[in-house]
């Protein structure tokens, strides 16, 4: 399902598992250490309740800020790219077959294979493997997500269409962190020799990409993909792309302390309620039967003395 895939992509399940393991370990440590310090029993209950209340908050933070996936994705001072993105790196995605002829998929795969091979020969250009690119076959993924997951700066995508003996190939070069088109072209040819057609189209595409990814252009500053978050106090927004820094700004805002105090107060109230119920259960199940037994024994002793 779509929402499960989104949860997995945002690493919510990973955060939940990590929180559960760390929380369980803390509870075990608290259960041993606090009694040794002669602290009252309610402190163990308070710690457990506080950890349970923090679990949904951790999931909300994982969903909202995607901390795990964007860790270290701050812009590099030298290139303007997120540090997780390699400058002058490119991936050739599988071309989409938009014709009814399923056999044209082999033609599209051949173009992708040739493009990947020829781009690897360009000096200073890092080309992602075909295996990494094939993972996006048939998936609707935006360029920024691909850039984050593969660490590439550019994405090549395209499509193949065939009607009768005419073939149309379209291709686009995308600046992935910006999610902007750098170059796009369409090629209309007659399908007479498939290999010759692939060579011709690949030659034109590689020449166009080589011209646009010259070293002088490669060092041009690129804006980071992360959206701006509001600054503390409602002023100007933090620099775009500094998502982790923005999270720190949000967590340091005016409402953080009241929210933390409210969470502690709620944990304290729940702890008091649980302690009261525990005392009531102890009085009902243990103390009351013992008291009744003592009263019955005293009445029996008094009656026996009267008889004597």
Helices and strands, with pairings:
Layout: H1 2-9, H2 12-36, H3 42-65, E1 89-92, E2 96-97, H4 104-119, E3 126-127, H5 130-134, H6 143-150, E4 154-163, E5 166-175, E6 180-190, H7 194-212, H8 215-218, H9 243-251, H10 256-307
Parallel strand pairs: 1-3, 1-4, 2-4
Antiparallel strand pairs: 4-5, 5-6
What do you see in this structure?
With 308 residues, the chain is of the alpha/beta class. The protein has 2 domains: 2-68 and 254-293, no CATH class; 89-218, ABC-type transport auxiliary lipoprotein component (Rossmann fold). Helices cover 55% and strands 13% of the residues. The chain contains 10 helices and 6 strands; from the N terminus they run H-H-H-E-E-H-E-H-H-E-E-E-H-H-H-H. Strands 1, 2, 3, 4, 5 and 6 form a 6-stranded mixed beta sheet that branches. It is rod-shaped, with a radius of gyration of 33 Å.
Features:
alpha/beta; Rossmann fold; 2 domains; 10 helices; six-stranded mixed beta sheet; 6 strands; 308 residues
Count of discrete alpha- or pi-helical segments spanning 4 or more residues = 10
CATH fold group of the largest domain: Rossmann fold
Largest sheet: 6 strands, mixed
SSE string, helices as H and strands as E: HHHEEHEHHEEEHHHH
Brief digest:
With 308 residues, the protein is α/β, with parallel strands linked by helices. It is built from 10 helices and 6 strands, in the order αααββαβααβββαααα. The radius of gyration is 33 Å and the shape is rod-shaped.
